[in-house]
Specification:
Largest sheet: 8 strands, mixed
CATH architecture of the largest domain: 2-Layer Sandwich
Number of helices: 15
Number of domains: 2
Shape: globular
Structural class: alpha/beta
Number of strands: 14
Strand order of the largest sheet: 5-4-3-2-1-6-8-7
Order of helices and strands: EEEEEHEEHHEHHHEEEHHHHHEHHHEEH
Radius of gyration: 21 Å
Length: about 400
């Protein structure tokens, strides 16, 4: 019986996949095709606890999806697939919710390529390859930007000439929306509160990181902007910096616009400031061993995060809970401790024992009962995509 959803998340040189039953929420298989287009291209899959690696040398997205199809056939999952759900990074203002893929939807995704030149082309390649290899199956597009389309104009407009918005679509869009939807529902359930009566600050912290203000289930502000470079300090991204960095580095270093953009996207953040790694775990380990540069890097990371969370609170009017999620948010007790302490002006009081306990899949409150709630909630974007896709094909 066809009840499962195949999830595809295509990057420029990678493809993540999973097969999920949206009703039972069971994940049957997951995997990653990486280094696509190179001689080292492989598909690594995990099925019933066992990992398997398949070489697909020089194959790009089309070949990778063909390889995934073969893996699904081998594991007896191919005939269980009812639809394919795609993560699409940018839907612009055209999409406020997930949608079934049609020609006009693909055109709208293509029209957003100037807003997401690295992601949307790969997302389109994934959709078209899936249509080829899974003919007749419904395809759904789930947009990172859709959740944030409820932001008011005062939150998404930039103070630049207004025609840049009307003519070019220059505005804040926000990302990680699929995660924010999942976390909002999960956090409200854990708190025993109605979604439509809850004010949340959510910090989605991974190699890419953002934060959002969610009021009564709707996004009212977020840190990422026109692109995912804006906002928080991340693994290799600088986050918000003085825009005149571009002219400064041009004048001082002779860099082109593309070279400055590359520095801010790929050589900054945790990696650039620590000179150690883009991986927060490695920076924390170096800090524990006494590295002053690593300690400084973590201080900057947490200060920037706490400062931007405090700013997002303006859009809420109150804070019912501060939620940490993503690989760093769910597992780094150090980052959470530093941020909660910095947020003490709002009355947050950390419970050190609870903070140490909520890691590696454990979820729950990390603050003392006498103050506002801060908590850890595990995200699951793939399950959210599966739920949306299943809902669309009913």
């Amino acid at each position: 019986m066809k009840t499962n959803i195949l999830i595809l998340n295509c990057g420029s040189s990678s493809l993540k996949f999973a097969v999920i039953d949206p009703t039972s929420e069971q994940e049957f298989i997951s995997g990653l095709a990486e280094r696509l287009g190179s001689p080292e291209a492989v598909i690594v899959s995990k099925f019933q606890g066992e990992k398997t690696t398949i070489n697909i040398a020089d194959e790009a997205h089309d070949g990778a999806i063909a390889g995934v199809l073969d893996v699904l056939k081998e594991k007896g999952l191919f005939d269980t697939i009812a639809a394919v759900g795609h993560r699409v990074v940018h839907g612009g203002e055209a999409f406020t919710a997930s949608t079934l893929v049609a020609e006009d939807v693909k055109k709208a995704i293509s029209d957003c390529i100037p807003l997401a030149p690295l992601h949307n082309p790969a997302n389109l390649l994934g959709i078209e390859a899936a249509e080829k290899h899974f003919p007749g199956l419904p395809q759904a597009a789930v947009f990172d930007t859709a959740f944030h389309q409820t932001m008011p104009a005062q939150a998404y407009l930039y103070p630049v000439p207004y025609e840049y918005y009307t003519d070019l679509g220059l505005r804040k869009y926000g990302f990680h929306g699929t995660s924010y939807r999942f976390i909002t529902a999960s956090a409200c359930e854990m708190l025993g509160r109605k979604t439509e009566e809850t004010a949340l600050l959510i910090a989605h912290l991974g190699n890419g990181a953002s934060a959002a203000a969610v009021l009564n289930g709707e996004g009212v502000d977020t840190t990422m902007g026109l692109t995912p470079l804006d906002g928080l300090m991340m693994g290799t991204r600088s986050g918000s910096v003085d825009p005149n960095i571009f002219t400064f580095l041009r004048d001082q270093k002779g860099y082109s616009l593309d070279e400055v953009a590359s520095v801010l996207n790929k050589k900054s953040g945790l990696l650039g400031l620590s000179q150690i790694s883009n991986d927060c775990r490695a920076v924390e380990e170096a800090a524990a061993e006494g590295s002053k540069q690593a300690l400084l890097t973590l201080d900057v990371y947490c200060y920037v995060l706490a400062k931007q969370l405090a700013g997002l609170a303006i859009g809420l009017g109150r804070i019912d809970a501060l939620v940490f999620t993503g690989g760093i948010g769910e597992n780094s007790e150090l980052i959470r401790r530093k941020v909660v302490e910095l947020m003490g002006i709002f009355g947050f009081k950390l419970d050190n024992d609870l903070n140490l306990k909520q890691r590696f899949g454990a979820e729950g409150v990390i603050t003392a009962e006498s103050g506002p709630v801060a908590m850890v909630v595990s995200t699951n974007e793939e399950l959210m995509i599966a739920r949306d896709t299943a809902s669309l094909i009913k």
